[in-house]
Design brief:
Helix content is 6%, strand content 45%. The chain has helices at 2-6, 144-149, 151-155, and strands at 7-9, 11-13, 31-37, 48-54, 68-70, 74-80, 88-94, 97-102, 105-109, 115-122, 124-130, 137-139, 158-160, 162-163, 179-184, 195-204, 221-227, 235-241, 244-249, 252-256, 262-277. Strand 7 and strand 8 form a beta hairpin. It is globular, with a radius of gyration of 18 Å.
Length: 287
């Protein structure tokens, strides 16, 4: 059960397939979509997660989305390919008003907010997450006056990352490899009621000491493993879920159901690790 229902290898998806995507007619997407969490890969999960990989972008990237809203909150996580996660730029239009994005950064999009986004320059990844698996795209024209009038409010939905010590979390230690970038939590965006970090680790060795004790949450949690190789391979982890240990190679997602004891440890390679908890405070989600 554990391997089949909780661990999934990411797959490359055809650009326009699934969910009536809000794409402009005849557009060729400049990004490659990798599906990490959906009904096909992890049917018991409650969120949707994809990754848009940006490489060899044209000098001018055309708009490729149409204005739309959703029935649930959405998050974008911009992660560049440089060691400090810089190197990727993009934009999002909230109600027709353009706002610039520079990685590493998170974008919070509340349900019902009209938006469209694109990458514009550099190389890296945009992780796209919907709070609910039953999300839908709602075509909707922007309210241009609202976009101008509430531009300051919308600009606050774009959050820069903060490097914080791993030990601020219970059951976690600063022997962890790489830097822990906090993208969203209750300190940065209370109204989002969501927690996401990305850890950037390079040349991890098999001798890497443990840095997470076994623990449980009062909600489902999700781990993403994204390698630095062009096909997102290159990162290896050891994952324990309910006393069953597995070796996981990127690109992969791990779904941990509420109340199930678990831990993870990076044991080889280079890449990014995402920890996603649908609660604003990680520590308050712990049992």
């Amino acid at each position: 059960m554990i391997n089949e229902r909780t661990i999934a290898t990411a797959r490359v998806a055809e650009a326009g397939i699934g969910g009536q995507r809000p794409l402009r007619e005849g557009i060729v997407l400049p990004v490659t979509r990798h599906i990490f969490v959906d009904r096909q890969s992890l049917p018991d999960a409650r969120v949707y997660v994809a990754l848009h990989q940006a490489r060899n972008l044209p000098a001018t990237v055309p708009d490729y989305q149409t204005p739309h809203a959703h029935n649930t909150d959405e998050f974008y996580y911009f992660i560049g390919n440089n060691p400090d996660l810089s190197g990727l730029e993009g934009q999002i239009k909230f109600e027709g008003k353009t706002h610039r994005i520079t990685s590493p950064a998170a974008v919070y999009i509340p349900a019902g907010t009209v938006h469209e986004y694109k990458v514009t320059r550099g190389e890296g990844s945009v992780v796209v997450l919907f709070r609910r698996l039953d999300y839908v795209h709602i075509p909707r024209e922007p309210d241009l006056e609202k976009g101008e009038r509430e531009a300051e409010k919308f600009s606050k939905y774009i959050l820069g990352s903060e490097i914080r010590p791993t030990s601020e979390l219970k059951y976690h230690y600063d022997t962890a490899p790489g830097d822990r970038h906090v993208l969203v939590d209750s300190q940065k965006m209370p109204q989002a009621d969501f927690y996401t970090i990305v850890r950037n680790a390079c040349n991890v060795q098999a001798t890497q000491p443990n840095y997470v004790d076994k623990h449980r949450h009062n909600c489902d949690t999700y781990h993403l493993f994204i390698g630095n190789d062009p096909d997102l391979t290159g990162l290896i982890a050891e994952v324990l879920i309910d006393d069953q240990k597995s070796i996981v190679g990127s690109p992969a997602a791990v779904y941990v159901p509420e109340g199930i004891p678990h831990y993870y440890r990076l044991i080889g390679g280079s890449g990014k690790f995402f920890n996603i908890v649908p609660k604003g405070s990680y520590n308050e989600s712990l049992i």
